[in-house]
Write a structure and sequence with these properties.
350 residues, alpha/beta, 7-stranded mixed beta sheet, 11 helices, 27% strand, binds zinc ion
Length: 350
């Protein structure tokens, strides 16, 4: 064990504050990482405030981690001291169930061990996330950061990136497909870039016409203002895929109408229950599919990092001093960030 530092919430109602805590010494298959950057995800806020009812305190968020390997266990073969590496939303899983065997650890039948606020599978301790100077993680759950990528803007690829890349790949989005991206926050702007890189014709759906120019700058070919019934009607039966990143409840029906037959509407936000109700006829009458998708497996997380390096894709970020983390949360809730805050972990030590 050694003493680490970081920022944690002590309860659902207290702001994040500096803490000292114990990290384990590396086990034989572990990699110890000095954290250089950590992205700030909306899940961090939900968990810090126990909005999903599953928080464990002290709660140290952070699952978009980029850093440098400082030590390895005796059996580690994938990484060596000095390597630039990343850790995303998961740090372990059962490794033997059908999902794990299929490299889909995020759907582990026993439930994956998340990067924070989940009991460690070996010693039962509460996992502590990336708002910290360091982390110790089994090598299987550590990915390599391609040299070409800027380290800070690579961090959000580990959650925002893989969350949008995985479903586009799974459903086979290809050149010429018509893809609609719903919402342009941290996830949506990555969705635009990936769909574009896969060769699709990309349309952003947004509530505000003021986002049109910015959407085009991000690579969107077209913009539909979703509050304009005429524009929505004009898009009827048009899309092969919709990637829905809207994080709050919204009416799915008008969007389903914009799908062609066999079209797929993919949810990546946890908006339950769907409200207002969805009309089954909008699926049945055109064999449309309403689907969901959660992050991606470890192999695919490596794949998306390599894909980003190959296609010069990065996340647009605003660098954050960790001492401003609580103000950053307030700004994120107000939608005032383009598009991801990334903590510069050097600010933890000043
Ligand atoms: Zn996340
Ligand atoms: Zn499993």
């Amino acid at each position: 064990m050694y003493t680490a530092i970081g920022y944690a919430a002590q309860s659902a109602t207290t702001p994040l504050a500096p803490v000292k805590f114990e990290r384990r010494s590396p086990r034989p298959d572990d990699v110890a990482i000095e954290i250089l950057y950590c992205g700030v995800c909306h899940s961090d806020i939900h968990q810090a405030r126990n909005e999903w009812g599953i928080a464990v305190y002290p709660l140290m968020p952070g699952h978009e981690i980029v850093g440098k390997v400082t030590a390895i266990g005796a059996n580690v073969s994938k990484h060596k001291v000095g390597d630039l590496v990343g850790v995303g939303c998961m740090v372990d899983s059962c490794r033997s169930c059908d999902a794990c065997q299929a490299n889909l650890e995020q759907y582990c039948l026993e439930g994956p061990t998340m990067t924070y606020a989940t009991p460690d599978r070996v010693d039962g301790s509460n996992t502590m996330g990336g708002y910290s100077d360091s982390i110790v993680v089994s090598e299987h759950f550590v990915v390599r950061i391609p040299q070409k990528l800027d380290l800070a803007s690579a961090a959000p690829i580990l959650c925002a990136g893989i969350t949008t890349y995985s479903p586009l790949k799974h459903y086979g989005v290809k050149a010429g497909d018509k893809v609609g991206i719903l919402g342009m926050g941290g996830l949506g702007h990555m969705g635009i870039k990936f769909a574009k890189a896969l060769g699709a014709e990309v349309t952003l759906f947004t509530r505000s016409a003021s986002k049109a120019e910015e959407a085009r700058r991000q690579g969107a070919d077209h913009v539909i203002v979703s509050t304009d019934a005429e524009q929505m009607k004009a898009a009827a039966g048009h899309f092969d895929f919709l990637l829905d990143t809207i994080p709050v409840q919204h009416d799915l029906n008008p969007y389903l109408d914009t799908l062609r037959f066999d079209g797929v509407h993919i949810l990546v936000g946890l908006i339950e229950p769907v409200d207002p109700p969805m009309h089954a006829g909008k699926l049945v009458m055109s064999r449309r599919v309403l689907a969901g998708s959660l992050i991606g497996g470890i192999a695919e997380t490596q794949e998306v990092l390599d894909f980003c390096a190959e296609h010069d894709i990065t996340c647009d970020i605003e660098m954050l001093d960790i001492r401003q983390i609580n103000e950053a949360y307030a700004r994120m809730i107000a939608g005032d960030v383009k598009y991801r805050f990334v903590i510069d972990m050097a600010t933890l030590k000043v």
